[in-house]
Amino acid sequence: MLLIVGEVIVDYTYRSLTRECKLRLGGIIHAARGLWASGIEYSVAAICPGYLVEQAKKYLKQHGCTSIIWIGDVIGSPNVMLIGDPCEVSNQEYELLLRDEKTVKLMDDEGELKKYRDILIFPGRFDLLSFRNRFGINVQFSFDLAYDIDDMSLLSSYVGNIASIIISTSSELFLKEWSKNVEGLVAKMRSLGAKYLLLKENRGGSRLFDLENNAVENIPASLGKTVNSVGVGDVYTAVMVGQSNNGWINAAWRGSRAATYYSRTTYIDDFKRDVLRDQGIQFEILRNLGGTFLPWHSRKKFSIYLAAPDFSTIERDYIDLVIKALEYHNFNLRRPVQEFGELNKESDISEMHTVFVKDYELLMECNAVFAVPLSKDPGTVCEIGIAISCNKPVITFDPKHENANTMIVAGSTIYSSDLDVCLNALFVEISKML
């Protein structure tokens, strides 16, 4: 039976102009939901504040958990996570309340943890290095290195017993150490004796590295409307590790599919229904369904032209949102206004012509255009038209619905007021260029 180890957190997505607030149990509860929906037996060793213990136990028992061990008390913080962007258009802006005051007091588990042989650990604010002593000798560990770990030496006491390591491109550890070099990531995980490495690359899919046989399985993403991406990676990890006895490649594909369904609803009965339906699909058929595959480290090879009034004198909220999103997803964003200068009303025709030529040449060099036509902006509309005439993919994000012209709507690869939809379209179009 799989044992999940980690923190129980309360997720709170606060209200905005486009969404309602959402409050639910998070942390390792996301992983538990994935296992429950997949029909996988599991137990939990939970770290959480005392006020959450009974609620967490009740919830987990209702969702397939065989045994629940409270192994750590959180002191100084309610373990409430504020979430700014639940769809991960850009950085999700997680803020843990009283994070600087938070400490974890581990308690005696009375040898309970030594009963388990397959353990999945989500590191948190506890001493991971000495935590190894709580488990037996002949065990297999998997680690999801999403948060709260910035030093790989913390895994040194687990060397020789690591089945898999899972990391996401949104992890601070990944961004600090391996955002420019996947070979370094693979070498580091191999040095720890891990058998498998899963690199989750958000909307671009994922890669499963078989470190013993030097093989890679590319797993595409199945893109659709994102309702809530919080906990999606935890579901992927848990289902993959939970089904690994059926083969790691098969398990990774099943985990990816479960994560996709988790992103599309926050109603867990609907989630379970979709996962169980998907499990009825034979693996070879599932593998041939296709999807979008665009690795993190390949995205910089393609230039994205920002067609927008990227000026300092206008209201920039939507433009800045797009810039943050494309930079967060590691695209090579080209901003002509910033590269060639911002003209003023006194600029003469020769200055305008010089900038026009530079903008045009840059547009021709770029692989795709991401347009943000705020108000009736003739410059952006002109750039859209030029790109369409050159058969370049044009992603038009029109948040104010002010440019719903037939030529723009029909000529664009995608036209939408939803940035999530536009991002998906960009991933799809650029993935075709690999």
Describe the structure.
With 434 residues, the chain is of the alpha/beta class. It has two domains: 2-287, Ribokinase (UDP-N-acetylmuramoyl-L-alanine:D-glutamate ligase, 3-Layer(aba) Sandwich), CATH 3.40.1190; 302-431, Rossmann fold, CATH 3.40.50. It is 35% helix and 22% strand. The protein has 15 helices and 18 strands. It has helices spanning 28-38, 53-62, 128-131, 172-177, 182-191, 232-242, 248-263, 268-279, 283-287, 317-328, 336-340, 349-365, 378-389, 406-411, 419-431, and strands at 2-13, 22-27, 42-48, 65-75, 80-83, 95-96, 103-106, 118-121, 140-144, 162-168, 196-200, 206-210, 215-219, 303-307, 332-334, 368-371, 394-397, 414-416. The strands form two sheets. Strands 1, 2, 3, 4, 5, 6, 7, 8, 9, 10, 11, 12 and 13 form a 13-stranded mixed beta sheet that branches. Strands 15-14-16-17-18 form a five-stranded parallel beta sheet, sandwiched between helices. Helix 14 links the parallel strand 17 and strand 18 (414-416). The protein is elongated.
Any descriptors?
single chain; 434 residues; alpha/beta; UDP-N-acetylmuramoyl-L-alanine:D-glutamate ligase; Rossmann fold; 13-stranded mixed β-sheet; five-stranded parallel β-sheet; 18 strands; 35% helix; elongated
CATH architecture of the largest domain: 3-Layer(aba) Sandwich
How would a textbook summarize the main sheet?
13 strands, mixed
Unreliable runs: none
> How much helical structure, as a percent, in the residues?
25-40%
Which class of secondary structure composition applies to the elements? alpha/beta
Q: What does the overall shape look like?
A: elongated
Radius of gyration: 24 Å
CATH topology of the largest domain, anyone? Answer: UDP-N-acetylmuramoyl-L-alanine:D-glutamate ligase
- Number of spatially distinct domains: 2
CATH homologous superfamily of the largest domain, by name? Ribokinase
Share of β-strand residues: 15-25%
Give the oligomer, counting copies of the same chain as homo and different chains as hetero: single chain
Number of strands: 18
CATH class of the largest domain: Alpha Beta
Terminal residue distance: 41 Å
The number of helical elements comes to 15
- Mean pLDDT over all positions: 93
